[in-house]
């Protein structure tokens, strides 16, 4: 019932009175109030309720809808009621009775019986929404209300309670709203940042286009430098999840993009890259719109079905790598075994250093070479060292 | 003690790690079997205790600081047992007889010695066989007692000899 405002009961210039009903009691939600036997006026803009000593109004714009409530057959003493469902009170609401009410609806109880014409009039006036076309010209200022209606003094506007359960609840609500707002603001910032990122992407596009145009004009050095700028800017047009409805399609698309951006780097590091490195590289390239490890893994699992230049491979040890399709185990094993022969023996760390790959990958390469019978191991306290497989070669 | 002619594998560190690659492992175990038999033959030893494998140079190459773990020693012994070159002496398989001949080979060697030296029909004590003047040039000179008994039992089973126990001495009669 906190949507009502005190008023002097006179019609505003743009307002027309449509109907008056008597002997009406107000309910705040389901709670019976002391406002009874009053007169209810329907105007084109408001409902005005007047008793002998107080008068207040409810703007029709606050009514979402209304419904009739007839008493059941067992309660023939009860009066028919109209239930008005209301929106939130406006910020600039003038003071009214029961301003601290929590109910979002009020009831009008018709002691003298409910005339069907009332319902008709009410629905018509709500339907017409005249307040949107011709607003009430003058706001109901509290001073004029006070001046014209001395009853105000007997009903001072209630003070917002700070104690008790209602006070606590109110505080909590307040806090929640504040948090909500700050979150919204934060996300707005993020969105702005992403908007900026799109601009960056555009810049990178123009730079790359210019490089292509002026292939001959600028020196090799400059081209390289520009390219490194582009690299640090990231990839253009990252595939993002919300663009795809089914996650399967998303993974496939992501897989294609992975193939695009990883093909070259993988070749550079010798045809194979550990999944952790892939994860870091891809997310560094994306900058924003980061991938979760899970999404990346799913996308990688799609690679083999897509006939791309790279594929996911899981070693016996459980280590997962992305390798180029052209990668040939036998060739690698041969190369490694040749290296072992040249050096006499090698550990994973040494191989990692000489080939510029991670230790995990070096380890896998050695195991693979061993699996092809081209190396044998010496597992001592110092390290796991690999030797040429003299057992098989000596005879 | 004779100088051992160590094979090249002995100074090859991977020799002391069990190889996971199946084919390599076969070769590795094979090489170990050879080495173990050769070593026992050359040093004229018969008993191997798994608990003491690192006391001698066979399973511990101090030059390259590599030891063969007792587990792998056991694997090799099991392999040797399959070809009759090793026999466990206890149930927990810690003490083993290792010999360069199988029991059948030993029994044949002893019987043919008895035949060619005219001992058919007569009795020899174990001591005479193992350390007697007549056998100094024989391969079974200094043979382990357990191994000798097992070899002679094979002869007994094929009715070519009979084990006789008299007083403190044990002997065998060849037929």
From TrEMBL, chain A:
Its main location: cytoplasm. GO terms for biological process: protein transport to vacuole involved in ubiquitin-dependent protein catabolic process via the multivesicular body sorting pathway. Signal peptide: none annotated. It is found in: Cytoplasm; Endosome. SUPFAM superfamilies: PH domain-like, Winged helix' DNA-binding domain. One of its GO terms (cellular component) is late endosome membrane. Transmembrane segments: none annotated. GO terms for molecular function: phosphatidylinositol-3-phosphate binding; ubiquitin binding. Gene3D superfamilies: 6.10.140.260, Pleckstrin-homology domain (PH domain)/Phosphotyrosine-binding domain (PTB), Winged helix-like DNA-binding domain superfamily/Winged helix DNA-binding domain. It comes from the Eukaryota. Residues 1-138 form the GLUE N-terminal domain. Keywords: Cytoplasm, Endosome, Protein transport, Transport. Belongs to the VPS36 family. Component of the ESCRT-II complex (endosomal sorting complex required for transport II), which is required for multivesicular body (MVB) formation and sorting of endosomal cargo proteins into MVBs. This is Vacuolar protein-sorting-associated protein 36.
TrEMBL record, chain B:
Keywords: Cytoplasm, Protein transport, Transport. InterPro entries: ESCRT-II_cplx_Vps25-sub (IPR008570), ESCRT-II_cplx_Vps25-sub_N (IPR014041), WH-like_DNA-bd_sf (IPR036388), WH_DNA-bd_sf (IPR036390). The keyword Endoplasmic reticulum does not apply. The keyword Transport applies. GO terms for cellular component: cytoplasm. Pfam families: ESCRT-II (PF05871). One of its GO terms (biological process) is protein transport. It is found in: Cytoplasm. Belongs to the VPS25 family. This is Vacuolar protein-sorting-associated protein 25. It comes from Trichogramma kaykai. The lineage of its organism: Eukaryota, Metazoa, Ecdysozoa, Arthropoda, Hexapoda.
